[in-house]
Amino acid sequence: MNEQIAIQITGLKKQYRLGQIGGGTLKADLQSLWAKIRKKEDPNVKIGQEARLSGQTFMALNGIDLTIRKGEAIGIIGGNGAGKSTMLKILSRITAPTAGTVDICGRIASMLEVGTGFNGEMTGRENVYLNGAILGMTKAEIDAKMEDIIEFSEIRDFIDTPAKRYSSGMYVKLAFSVAAHLDAEIMIMDEILAVGDVAFQKKCLDKMREAATVEGRTVLYVSHNMNTIRRLCDRCVVLDQGKIIFDGDVEKAIDIYSGTGTSLKKEVVFDRERSAKQLDGKLRFTSGTFLDTDVPVYHTGDAIRLALRFTAEEALDSAAIRVVVQTESGTPVGLAATEKGIPVRAGENELPLTLRFDTLAPGTYSARLIAQSIDEFGRGPMHDLVESAITFRIVHRDGENNGQGWYPHVWGYAQYPTVEIGKDV
Amino acid sequence: MEKNTSARHVRLKAKTGLFDINLKELWRYRDLIALFTKRNFILIYKQTILGPAWILLQPMFTTLIYTLVFGGIAGISTDGVPQILFYMAGTALWTYFSQTLTKTSTTFTANARVFGKVYFPRLVMPISTVLSGIINFGVQFLLFACFWAYYIIKGVIAPNYLGILLLPVILVYLGLLGMGLGIIISSLTTKYRDLSMLVTFGVQLWMYITPVVYPVSTITSPLLRTLILLNPVTCAVETFRWIFLGEGVISLAHWGISAAVMALALTLGVIVFSRVEKTFMDTV
Question: Which of A156, A269, B79, B211 has the highest local Cβ count within 10 Å?
Fold first, then answer.
């Protein structure tokens, strides 16, 4: 393995069985086994339940490949059930993968929870020793760091009091202090910064940031709190349904994550029933694919390239396509149209479109697609109309609009070019 | 989990070998073993008025009850050994063994919360259970030693003093036997909870085929005697009594069989345990 690599994940999969595991009791499992040997019907299969259903499985992780270099602070985000926790559990060796390998170079400290093994009956000091040892420190290492840990935790006065007398804040502060003083090369953290008061949270983040940048440790951080991800990580992975759908820039990852769940898809099939009336059906949109990107998230000013497919009953010589951009709530924002006379053959067609919404402000938009043939008077039959055919998101580049974000209800949906200052117009 | 040539490099994958037990790693976590042992010991007696005195009071009461019921009412022979000493020796060893067995048999289920959050070699838990058992035994032994010294001065018993050197062997043997069986059960209970019900009951029954309240020498039925001698705990109890009280049935053949049973249980236990530990979080 390359010296620069901290974690190398190849083809990682984790499968879980759905429903009850086994018959639940030894007796039931033995019954099932005995029935199988005699080729009789399994007495534990419920009537009406198909045999293949009882063996249903679920892939929590479905082929993850990821290389993490030493000294990186990498964030992992994704919706509930995306596979984040499963991935951390495998990396922390709590459970083994179903397929694939993980190579880890360096000592790992995983903090999936603060204060694992803390016991209320024991004093703060005793708990520091136990918790530190659980996390992989030796007694000598803990001895050496004891003063720092107590100092960081801000609860020196209570260190020899049983932990059950602590407030929940004190408990967490002490627990985090232990975790923060681990000597591991790789630190895995699951949302643990979501605890403690604001000042302490900031202190913890700074400590972690320092670990990654100054001390060159590798940090893996999972959170639903995008602000902590922003502050801590310099690379971000988005998981969705057990797969990595994005790996790279933090801001872009966060935008994609905020979009999973909605309909930000690379490929869209227009197979829905059309609601518009008076369509003659001579041309019918079938599908569209965003080119150049896996997820339709663009920076302001980026060209959106779209491969649009449609079928036509006959060749048309004066057809045009209109793209009506709408906000998420359906308010029209603007229109872009092709010239009339786009090439339409009878049968299947594919048309690469380049859409330029240079002044479209950040936000999520959908577009209505309309196909129409236009005569010399500017009128003609409408062939097809798809509501909300495609959905895409526009995000700011770093520092754009002075880093103020965008408030559409105040500023609208158009962001015009930066105002120039000078006399020579 | 396979260790690569580099000490710091770990590879995680799905299938692992049968004897995939990382003793070197276990050794690195020796401080944790010590801390868990200490915790087990501290926690039993936290916030009790009598504190560690309970370690002494429990066997005292048991011994008194045995003396009353088995010695007084049932009138079972103790081979001429003072009843208090006889029962105390039996209960101390039996408590050590049975506690090791019952406590290690819940390793996975009782620690699921900690195991689900952080990795450390899971064998740390059963090992520290054995060690805290030895500490408890040590405290009880001190009590036993007081009575023992009293009866030696009175000249009632004739101990085999040289045999005392064998005491650590007996303790390690019983600890490993209890742990071996315990972790087999604990590995099975991650899927089948039935076994945990059986353990409590089974351990109670087991005591009666172990010479805790009677000496082997009083058993005349050959079948029963063989059964009792084949019980791998018997040789430990009888040897202990022979060392300290001068009475006891010891045969090398039975020690051999018992040691083989222990080795088998331990090996099987460690293999099953280290297979289950990798994925038990998915089924527990």
Answer: B211
Is the pLDDT assigned to residue B267 strictly greater than 70?
Answer: yes
What is the spatial distance between Cα A299 and Cα A251, in angstroms, rounded to a whole number?
A: 11
> Which strand ranges, in their side-by-side order, compose the sheet holding B2-3?
A57-69, A5-17, A99-105, B9-13, B2-3
pLDDT in tens, A36-55: 677 666 665 555 444 434 45
The rounded distance, in Å, linking the Cα atoms of B262 and B283 is 28
Residue B192 lies in a domain: yes
Which fold, A97-234?
A: Rossmann fold (3.40.50)
Q: Give the residue-averaged pLDDT of B212-240.
A: 87
Backbone angles phi, psi at B210, to 5 degrees: -110, 135
Count of all residues that appear for chain B in the document: 284
pLDDT tens, position by position, A360-414: 998 888 899 999 998 888 888 899 998 888 988 888 887 788 877 788 878 889 9
Which of A97, A104, A112 lies at the smallest CB-CB distance from B117?
A112
pLDDT tens digit string along A179-199?
888 878 888 888 765 566 777
CA angle A387, A393, A396 (to 5 degrees): 150
Q: Which residues in chain A touch residue B279, judged by CB atoms under 8 angstroms apart?
A: 95-96
**Whether residue A302 has pLDDT greater than 80:** yes
The end-to-end CA distance of chain B, in Å, is 20
Q: What is the largest CA-CA distance in chain A?
A: 96
Nearest to B119 among A1, A110, A117 (CB): A110
Mutate to test the interface with A, among B28, B29, B31, B111 (most CBs of A within 10 A): B31
Neighbours of B264 (CB within 10 A): 12
- A100 interfaces chain B, CB cutoff of 8 Å: yes
Q: In 3D, which of A198, A201, A194 has the Cα closest to residue A222?
A: A194
Distances (CA, A) of B232 to A279, B127, B186, B209, B236: 89, 20, 20, 10, 8
Compute the C-alpha angle B15/B21/B23, nearest 5°.
150
Question: Among residues of chain A, what percentage have pLDDT more than 90?
Answer: 20
Q: Give the closest-approach CA distance of B188 to chain A in angstroms.
A: 9
Of how many residues is chain A composed?
425
A59 phi-psi bin (left φ>0, alpha ψ -120 to 50, beta other): beta
A267-400+405-411 CATH fold? Coagulation Factor XIII; Chain A, domain 1 (2.70.50)
Question: How is chain A split into domains, by residue range?
Answer: 97-234, 267-400+405-411
> Residue A237 has what pLDDT?
92
**Predicted structure pTM score:** 0.72
Q: What residues make up the domain containing B91? A: 50-282
SS (H, E, C) A301-359: CCEEEEEEEEEECCCECCEEEEEEEEECCCCEEEEEECCCCCCECCEEEEEEEEEECCC
Who among B16, B36, B119 is closest to A94 (CB)?
B119
- Checking if the pLDDT of A349 tops 70, the result is yes
